[in-house]
Design goal:
By secondary structure, this protein is α+β, with helices and mostly antiparallel strands. The chain has 7 helices and 10 strands. It has 2 domains: 126 residues, Methyltransferase, Cobalt-precorrin-4 Transmethylase, Domain 2 (2-Layer Sandwich), CATH 3.30.950.30; 77 residues, Arc Repressor Mutant, subunit A, CATH 1.10.10. Strand 9 and strand 10 form a beta hairpin. Helix 2 packs across helix 3 and helix 4 packs across helix 7.
Length: 208
């Protein structure tokens, strides 16, 4: 398959869980957010020089290419793995930045205020990771043999998560410290007892 056919096939897919279009690179911080989201989820690719409607605009300058590298290697911690492939189509330069899923999650992106934030990719959006996701990534670094003790606190948490609730609702109803609720939810998600979903711009937790 030639470059043009390959690129047009990708564009026809539209934006989705593992693909995002970037018309131009004006801000390395914003691009780093996408890199973080892909690295923390299932990986993906950025088609840079492609408008949201799929039309080719092209990468306009060497400065944009420089900012792409900055996004991955300066504004992401730990440094994200990323591969850049350049295509020349119809007199325009299109760059595909491919980001594999990271084994060192969370990959955080620096925002405009200098704060480091972790993101995840949900459908075609980059969403800031919840405190539970951060705890889940910490849990995943532990040995596979980690045990979960069914104590009174866990029982109380299971009692209140029979419906879909936000983290704040669970903290309020369980009467447990917020930090403890976050840790327990991460452990229960890891063991397949609790699941999370993103609905109406908020994370909800419930029993499987």
């Amino acid at each position: 398959m030639d470059d043009k056919r390959y690129l047009l096939r990708l564009i026809r897919e539209g934006e989705h869980q593992q693909q995002d279009f970037k018309y131009r690179v004006a801000d390395a911080c914003k691009l780093a957010k996408s890199v973080s989201a892909f690295a923390n989820t299932d990986g993906g690719r950025l088609l840079i020089g492609v408008r949201d409607d799929g039309h080719l605009s092209g990468v306009r300058s060497e400065e944009e290419i420089y900012m792409m590298h900055q996004a991955a290697y300066k504004y992401c911690k730990p440094e994200a793995s990323i591969q850049f492939d350049t295509y020349h189509i119809e007199g325009r330069t299109i760059v595909i930045a491919t980001v594999p899923p990271s084994s060192k999650r969370p990959v955080c992106a620096q925002d405009e205020a200098g704060r480091m934030r972790a993101y995840i990719r949900i459908n075609d959006e980059n969403i800031m990771a919840s405190p539970v996701h951060l705890a889940l990534w910490r849990e995943s670094q532990k040995l596979q043999g980690t045990m979960l003790t069914l104590n009174d606190d866990i029982r109380q948490l299971l009692h209140v998560t029979q419906g879909r609730l936000t983290l704040n609702q669970i903290v309020r109803l369980s009467h447990l410290p917020r930090r403890k609720v976050i840790t327990f939810l991460a452990q229960l998600i890891r063991f397949g007892t609790i699941r999370w979903e993103y609905v109406n711009q908020q994370f909800l937790f419930s029993q499987q």
